[in-house]
Amino acid sequence: MYIFVIITMLLSVVWWFYRTHNDQRQFPATLAFFGSCFAYVFTLFVTAHNSIYSYILILPRDIAAVVIVAILANNLKSNKAFFLTACMVGAGVFYGYTYLPTLFFPKKTLDTQGELLVELKNKSQANILQKDLSKWNIVLKPSFNNTTDNDKTTLDEYFTIDVPENVNIEEVFSFLNANANVSNVEYNENYQLNLPHSSNEIKTFSSNYFNDPKISEQWAFEALKLNELSSFLKANNIKPKKRVKIAILDTGVDANHEDLKGNYISTKSSYDKDKQTHGTHCAGIAAAVSNNKIGIASLSPDNAWVQVTSIKVLSDKGWGTQEQIIKGIIEAANGGADVISMSLGGPSDDIRQKIYSEAIRYAQKKGAIVVVAAGNENQSAKNCVPASCEGVIVVSATDHTNNKASFSNTINEVKMGIAAPGENILSTLPNQKYASYSGTSMATPYVAGLLAMMKAINPKITTEKAYSILKASGQDTKNTTQTGKLIYPMKALEMLLK
Predict the structure, then answer these.
(1) What is the C-alpha to C-alpha distance for residues 428 and 262, in angstroms, rounded to an integer?
(2) Most exposed residue of 73, 213, 294, 498, measured as fewest CB within 10 angstroms of its CB?
(3) Residue 221 belongs to what H/E stretch?
(4) pLDDT score at 349
(5) pLDDT tens-digit profile of 419-445?
(6) In this structure, are residues 430 and 273 in contact, taking their beta carbons and an 8 Å threshold?
(7) Residue 104, pLDDT above cutoff 60
(8) Residue 458 near residue 432 (C-beta atoms within 8 A)
């Protein structure tokens, strides 16, 4: 249907110019063009289940095709040229739209929205469901086989199904919802990193407690009163009871960065590089080695407090699916992460998010606190995932004027919301580089770093208790209702120790 509509639309452009050149009425060709345009929109946006990535690839390509054909058609001079060009265009479009997308953009890249996550009431019934799904050539595959405590979670009851391109996904979804063997069905949603532009306006910071050469560019330390924290730790001779592990679920981390390797511990070698840069930036905010006379500092005064690891859940282009992210949560929890930092997510059409909630509960049972970004859409975080999920601490972003950052989502409609600086945040990049990024992605690892220090002092602290301390000890912003309290590290540790 899609190929037929494209060919009709392009040929109607040729037809319109042909009738114009021959002084004939353009109305039939105009009607054909607009009719095919309507059919194109209906086919692409209504009947298809494309990801955002698909639209980014398809729309510019289709518009370019229409423009090119219009230019060619405008130069037609004779009937012979018209028919020859029409045939060439038709053949070329048919070939291009049939074969080139599968050559350059395999289905797995374009059609992640064609996958469903299905929870069975009893996974021993999988063979029965598989027989029912065979009429669509659909194969059930276990989704999360990396759990270690099957009696503590239902995650091992989930299966992933890849709905073929020629099958109506809504029909399959409805069938599964009505199936007696199925407890839950969700789309395997696709997420992409979304970082706003950084402004040029920043404040500076000065301190006698840090010898890191780029410390003056870390304006957020002024907002967080890091000098007070350093003074408090030194005056009271506060030492950590354990070195806490922060897991950065992201695009990977450059394990060899000069300002990270002293705090870095590898989970898997394939996670120890970062072509995209986002994960390395977040890792530096959470756990750069302070007072090593290199680069930047983090909240921890030295490398006795925290260590950081990477769980790669996003591609080198910043894309990831719900399934990949949940597998990452499970892997981080199994690996002993004390704090799981997730600077990722986005708007979701599914408000249930049962699988995410189950994964978060699994991590909490393993002793981890999960902290996530509120999102950068300037809307309520309740519309975004995983920010809307039960059991997570959600982080909004503030700017250097102590206002809600213009891009930041609001947290007043989620249960556990807090704020941290998120505009023009200097941190580490791969290959010994440093740069400033903006986003709730940058605010989140500040909170993760503080939670790690709290767990280093009290390893058994729960998510709820930690959040109550963050909220009670936090500072007001100029938009506290929307942002939540801005974290105040010294006051939080002071309250924890009481």
Answers:
(1) 13
(2) 498
(3) helix 220-223
(4) 72
(5) 999 999 999 999 999 999 999 999 999
(6) yes
(7) no
(8) no
Lowest mean pLDDT among 308-317, 345-354, 483-492: 345-354
Q: Token pair of 249, please?
A: 């679920």
Cis-peptide, bond into residue 386, ω within 30° of zero: yes
- Alpha-carbon distance of 26 to 16, in angstroms, equals 6
Q: How far apart are CA 164 and CA 182, in angstroms?
A: 20
Q: Which CATH number fits domain 111-188: 3.30.70.80, 3.40.50.11720, 3.40.50.1380, 1.10.1270.20?
A: 3.30.70.80
pLDDT at 310 over 80: yes
| Residue 150 scores a pLDDT above 70 | no
The Cα–Cα gap between 460 and 364 comes to: 11
Q: For the domain with range 215-497, which CATH number is right: 3.30.565.10, 3.40.50.200, 1.10.285.10, 2.60.40.380?
A: 3.40.50.200
Active site residues: 250, 278, 441
32-60 pLDDT, tens digit each: 777 877 777 776 665 444 444 455 556 77
Q: What is the DSSP string of 367-435?
A: T-EEEEE--SSSSBGGGEETTTSTT-EEEEEE-TTSSBPTTPPB-TTSSSEEEEE-SSEEEEETTTEEE
For residue 115, count CB atoms less than 10 angstroms from its CB and return exposed for 0-12, middle for 13-18, buried for 19 or more: buried
Is the Cβ–Cβ distance between 120 and 126 less than 8 Å? yes
Asked if residues 254 and 298 have their Cβ atoms less than 8 Å apart, the reply is no
Burial label, 64 (beta-carbon count in 10 A; 0-12, 13-18, 19+): exposed
Tokens of 454: 């709290």
